[in-house]
Design goal:
Distance between the termini: 23 Å
Structural class: alpha+beta
Oligomer: single chain
Number of helices: 7
């Protein structure tokens, strides 16, 4: 049984009736019957944290507009916020990354450098990401994919090679992380990667036969990783088309993402797009068990 099938079965059997209802989607669950603008009960917060770990992606529906300060309050349920991005003048809070298709409304050109997790350039990548679309364009989805499923279904040749690979961040003083490692909570094998922010790969890092991948190998490895996300017409992907009131909490270490090409279309063509995102500091550096 695949990891995704098991997660969906768990989601279908999970009804926290006293708190909220979960309904399975292709990746994770939709959540209804809760108001994130006012919810502060410790037992509900703990249930949400458990459900994010279990289902990897929670899409809270019908939340209206969540203000920047409240977005930050919700984020703190999961740990310390870490903000490494450009602070746009119109951001509602210093820890809220404001993204848009209008440079005067938010940071533009975001999310189109390839599949990735956030914070791969950190010693410990971000543990969670929380998203809220405060102004919805006519087009412009966010696409997610489950990392454990991708690793579990790798062809034998790729898996053998990827187990030997370590990614080198594009930051000069950035860390070196294993490409495949164990999720710090679930222990599932996942990926630490960013197709647009990796300067190289090392085979057998720290071992006697350690060597840097050649330029040709580097380009081929990036292509191989991308292929696992797009093969079979992107069957592994969950494309989230935003609706008013959607608020997403993602286990950043379990779910990769990429903005669709339509997110870059100008405001004059698809209307104004404004996305708010926060990221939670990681606490454990990627490592193999």
């Amino acid at each position: 049984m695949s990891v995704r099938v098991q997660i969906i079965k768990n989601c279908m059997s999970q009804f926290t009736k006293e708190y909220y209802e979960l309904s399975p989607i292709k990746l994770g669950c939709e959540v209804r019957g809760i108001d994130l603008n006012t919810e502060n009960r410790p037992e509900v917060i703990e249930q949400i944290k458990q459900d994010v770990t279990k289902h990897r992606l929670l899409v809270f529906k019908d939340q209206g507009v969540i203000a920047g300060d409240r977005h930050v309050e919700i984020s703190k349920w999961f740990g310390k916020l870490e903000s490494t991005f450009y602070k746009h003048p119109k951001s509602p809070h210093p820890d809220v990354f404001r993204v848009s298709n209008d440079q005067y409304e938010g940071c533009t050109g975001v999310g189109r450098t390839g599949w990735h997790i956030d914070g791969s350039f950190q010693d410990a990548p971000f543990s969670y990401a929380l998203y809220h679309m405060v102004n919805i364009p006519q087009k412009g989805a966010t696409t997610f994919a489950p990392l454990a499923d991708i690793v579990a279904n790798l062809p034998a040749r790729k898996k053998e090679e990827w187990e030997r690979l370590w990614m080198v961040s594009d930051r000069r003083t950035g860390p070196i992380h294993p490409l495949i490692y164990n999720h710090p909570i679930t222990k599932h094998k996942v990926l630490c990667f960013h197709l647009g922010m990796t300067s190289g790969f090392i085979y057998d890092y720290g071992k006697k036969d350690e060597r840097m991948a050649t330029k040709e190998e580097y380009r081929r490895i990036l292509k191989d990783i991308n292929e696992e996300f797009i093969k079979d017409n992107g069957a592994i992907q969950y494309v989230h088309n935003w609706s008013f009131g959607d608020f997403i909490i993602s286990d950043n270490l379990a779910v990769a993402h990429e903005a669709t090409p339509e997110t870059q279309l100008p405001r004059t063509e698809v209307g104004l797009r404004v996305l708010h995102r926060t990221t939670i500091a990681g606490t454990v550096a990627p490592r193999k068990l």
